[in-house]
Amino acid sequence: MSLWLFVLVILLTALLVSFYVRYFPVITLQGWIARTWVDNVPRVSALALHPDDGLYATQEFYPPRGTLLHIQKNGERQLLLGNLGKPDGLVAFGDGIAVGQESGIAPVLWYRQGKVEELFTGNAVEALAAWENRYLYTVEDRKGGRLLRYDHTTKRLDVLYADGEGMEGITLCPDGTLYFSEKKQGKVYRFNEINPPEPVIEGLKKPNYLLCTPEGLWITEDATAHARVLLFAGGEISVIASHLRSAQTIIEAGERRMLVAEQGRNRILELIREE
């Protein structure tokens, strides 16, 4: 084979692989369907339900370009906050929404009724979880990252764990069980305040956001290609959706309906369980 033909084959192969990675459709488990809820949201990352049935959503740009948006069901969007530093976590808290920032040392913000309050400061804060509108939990995405608990009543910030390796997701189950993920390690841990965190799932592809529901533990993967949405229940993992690109937050959005921020395709994906 001549050199120019060899180079042409390599280039065509690279183009085909790129096309496959970018445009291959999402595949869902039997009984589920996937469709786009809203498109063209660059760097979409964190999601939370808005009281008007729309969404809060963040765009994970470096400062000063990071934003908090309100996205309505018809796709219209409104800028609520700008000048954020990689806003990568949202959770409903009290009568507003808590917003984390991953770009170094930065405050966790509380947005409500058009006003912003600084709650506490972290270093590379990722996802957030809330408990009874009093406690906020978060993890830091860095070597030696901390698992933090903020008590809004006393304004106290406690370090529950301080030996993380790039922690990403965090979730609280209805019974109070806390899980967090370490993306580079490919692991999901169960936390308690007595013993070291216990790995409960290993061998994942960049596990990212977590969500605990009565059905089980939902996990997204932040792989740039072939990312998945997983459900861990009864000691078994089900692949609910695959062939995603950089899946971020997953939330419940009604009965038999989940929403996933698919950052690699700049969209919010809707996963619906068929009756």
The fourth-level CATH homologous superfamily is: TolB, C-terminal domain
Strand content: over 45%
Query: Any idea what the shape is?
Result: globular
Percent of residues in helical segments?
under 10%
Q: What's the tally of helices? A: 1
* Class from secondary-structure proportions: mainly beta
For the largest sheet, list the strands in their spatial order. Answer: 1-22-21-20-19
- The CATH architecture designation is 6 Propeller
State the domain count. Answer: 1
Uncertain runs are 11-20
Average pLDDT taken over every residue:
92
Number of strand segments = 25
Rg over CA atoms = 19 Å
Largest sheet: 5 strands, antiparallel
Protein name: YncE family protein
InterPro entries: 6-blade_b-propeller_TolB-like
Characterise this structure.
By secondary structure, the chain is mainly beta. It has a single domain (25-273), classed as Neuraminidase (6 Propeller), CATH 2.120.10. Helices cover 8% and strands 60% of the residues. The chain contains 1 helix and 25 strands. The protein has a 5-stranded antiparallel beta sheet with strand order 1-22-21-20-19, with no helix packed on it. The protein has a 4-stranded antiparallel beta sheet with strand order 2-25-24-23, with no helix packed on it. Mean pLDDT is 92; it is low at 11-20. InterPro entries: 6-blade_b-propeller_TolB-like (IPR011042). This is YncE family protein.
